[in-house]
Amino acid sequence: MSNEEYDVVIIGAGISGLSSARYILSKDPHLNIVILEASDRVGGRTLTVPLKTENGTDDWDLGAHWIGRSQTHIMELLEELGIETHQQYVTGKKYLQVGKDNSVRSYTSDIPTLSLLGLLDLDRIMKKIDSLAKEIDQQNPTNHRRGHELDSITMETYLNQNMWMSESKELMEVAIRGVIGVELSQVSILYFLTYVSAAGGLKNLVESTPYTAQEYTLKGGCHQISIKMAKELGESRIKYNEPVVSISQNKNIATVKCESGNIYQCKKVILAIPPNQIAKLKIEPRLPVVKRELYKHMPMANYAKVLLTYKKVYWRESGCSGEVVTNGGPSSNTKCKYGPLCLVFDDTSANGNPALVAFVAGQQLVEWRQLEANERKESVLKCLSQFFGDDVYKYIDYAEKDWEEEPYVGGAPVCCVAPGAMKYYASGLREPDGCIHLAGTESASIWTGYMSGAVQAGTRAAIQVLLDLRPQTVSAQDLKNNNKPFINPSK
Amino acid sequence: MSNEEYDVVIIGAGISGLSSARYILSKDPHLNIVILEASDRVGGRTLTVPLKTENGTDDWDLGAHWIGRSQTHIMELLEELGIETHQQYVTGKKYLQVGKDNSVRSYTSDIPTLSLLGLLDLDRIMKKIDSLAKEIDQQNPTNHRRGHELDSITMETYLNQNMWMSESKELMEVAIRGVIGVELSQVSILYFLTYVSAAGGLKNLVESTPYTAQEYTLKGGCHQISIKMAKELGESRIKYNEPVVSISQNKNIATVKCESGNIYQCKKVILAIPPNQIAKLKIEPRLPVVKRELYKHMPMANYAKVLLTYKKVYWRESGCSGEVVTNGGPSSNTKCKYGPLCLVFDDTSANGNPALVAFVAGQQLVEWRQLEANERKESVLKCLSQFFGDDVYKYIDYAEKDWEEEPYVGGAPVCCVAPGAMKYYASGLREPDGCIHLAGTESASIWTGYMSGAVQAGTRAAIQVLLDLRPQTVSAQDLKNNNKPFINPSK
């Protein structure tokens, strides 16, 4: 059992925590920083794994997946780390499966195949959401003129009140499941508006067009972002398998105790872990009331990914982009209500190795999770075959990752806010409490829930820490950079 | 560090856990039972403390407070333990404070002073809620014909959709805050209907008339229920200051590890702690998916009590019952939006020592909690003075208890279910998982959230355990008794 002293202890070696460390050291390399990671690896909610291909193996992402040019914070980091992007393949037919009959329709534009009324309905709701989202103040979402009202209704209620057609509503439902991994009934519409606002608009969240969230994958995968940062920082700064149990603070000193018995004393702590994990720590004195209250109402969403590698890009050969938006269709397994998938994309690697990536989220994941491994795979293949035929069964490799199984994460992509708690949102997530600062993508004000948000939040926490420990190193420009506006020339 | 073996390890020495132990031993006194309690006392969410009176001290409840004759499980237990009841004083004027002008109105019947339309509105919504609640199947609430719909809307949405008048809606809001400690926006209406159903009707929850939940206090307080059970069981069976860290189970053996390092091996574990506390334990293999998912959506409510003792029952002298239902009125403290109180009752002890009990709940408690101790007291007195004048300041003793501060409880009266999670409710709360059984008032199917529910759930868990360990001791009548129907001759 060791007892060490540091300037800054960062808890969590995901993109956010590592960004914090990197930023602080860029301003003062003499500051003594340690990063405590509960698991045996860096990367948090990113994970890149090798999968079999026709002639060997290649790397694919089982966690965070895409970036886009409007995500300035991650774009800059990628440039600094020398990581290249790879355009998401979007050419060709897309499939849509919604409606009571679960019929599969194809379309080629960005506009799904719905009835004219359905399209009008969809266009109208997207404009409504964007228009409200534009009015949201990230620093105080409930300050909106309809703040209390919007936080007291679920997303489901909001869509029921504002949409006419069941097919377009179902499309929205699938999109929300695909974007934040929750059911419409579980989340406050004000939270969703705040999430949309942080992304600069709803289309940025749901499309794969230029500048949106699904514009590029990364050559070599997203895990390398953290791996490269860790290497740059020096592996000796990171303590693996070191879950934190408690933090106590007293004036300007914080004491971090780990399950191992190791103790780390420091001037500053940065919590770069999701709120559901912060809630498990014993913190003395207790965190402020609003933080405690917020975390009670922030369950982690349900999100899993499935990767399948193939010999041929057979979907492209029949003119398909590989993109599917689906309610899952009828389930092939009697234990599930629907087929498991909500979104499918072409995930052919930068090296040209064909692959599909599919998402299982929300209640469909809760059901799918309870199946046996062979049943899970079978139901994914059955669901995929609705769109791409029997070719789907000719996969070379199959991998799945349900983030709820990660003991120190508990789900993906984000902890969402249930109704009635948004009044605690910004101060609960971002305000420091004495020596304790908060990072993590949930606490981002730009691209919350994304890797870019992880960087922005990590940098913001680093700036807060520097303003206390090394104020002379922080310039007005640094603060401005952290709150960079969206870049989206297409608008 | 000890390593001991038992037949049954019960975690939590509240009314539920102690009822489990008592029931099991009543069937087979040779079963070897230990009760692990994280705090230094029995009683869970009950706590009776001595307060100063004119001529010495007397005992009052700072936790669970009332019982009623329709609560058959606790009534029987009280009889067996020889604990006497004391009728709640309800004679005289009552006060109601709702509406934009926060005006204080008085009334003497059970029917609050509202406009005629307001009364019709209130009557109508109460009938609607009762009528829906009657249709709820405790074993599967989402099986209701409107199950999904009702679980996708907050209580606030439901009342907005079904009430006409803001004053009657506000009265409902105050009542919900007073009954379950949450804001209307934070809870699924289906959860509330299930809660009402478990109490046999809305009036049973909100009134102080015969057979309702506020019919009697207990002579000597509620804490003695657990103290007497503990004495009967033998203090040696209870391990205090023994917080559990992890449970692992392997076939028919469970291993319970404590913060102290002590290890308890057993055939059965009964978790008699609230879901928010279960969620903090490391359990291997993990609890079933539906339990994990449910607990993510079950934040503990916010509930505090304030006790004031007096020389004289001055409110009775001016014809008042002491009962107040209030939105809190304008706050006397700029940090709070409203005055802190929602409900006030006469709490004169069975020995005739005058007292008032007042409740602070929901968002008002979140605000009040952040004040300094003197500010908290000042705002309570100011709020009370709106109804009872300056006499309120002549208190002999003042005590308050905010249950959120209890580290192994985290709030009161219950963990409520946020929208979108009721599909996991009954199986999540009551079905055993291998060696692990679940008690605690949250898991009750009759009088959920009340002491009676704690007994019913504790007994149900005990019956489950006995059916596995000593099946010959359980009769059909035992099962029937555990599901006793409501007794309410007034209906």
Largest sheet of chain A: 8 strands, mixed
CA-atom Rg of chain A in angstroms: 22 Å
**Known CATH architecture of the domain at 3-44 and 222-287 and 433-481 in chain A:** 3-Layer(bba) Sandwich
Q: What kind of assembly state do the chains in view correspond to? A: homodimer
Q: Going by CATH, what is the homologous superfamily of the domain at 3-44 and 222-287 and 433-481 in chain A? A: FAD/NAD(P)-binding domain
Mean pLDDT of chain A: 96
Class from helix and strand fractions of chain A: alpha/beta
List the chains of the largest interface with their residue counts: A-B, 35 and 35 residues
Overall shape of chain A: globular
Question: Beta-sheet strand percentage of chain A?
Answer: 15-25%
CATH class of the domain at 3-44 and 222-287 and 433-481 in chain A: Alpha Beta
Unreliable stretches of chain A: none
CATH topology of the domain at 3-44 and 222-287 and 433-481 in chain A: FAD/NAD(P)-binding domain
What share of the residues of chain A lie within helices?
25-40%
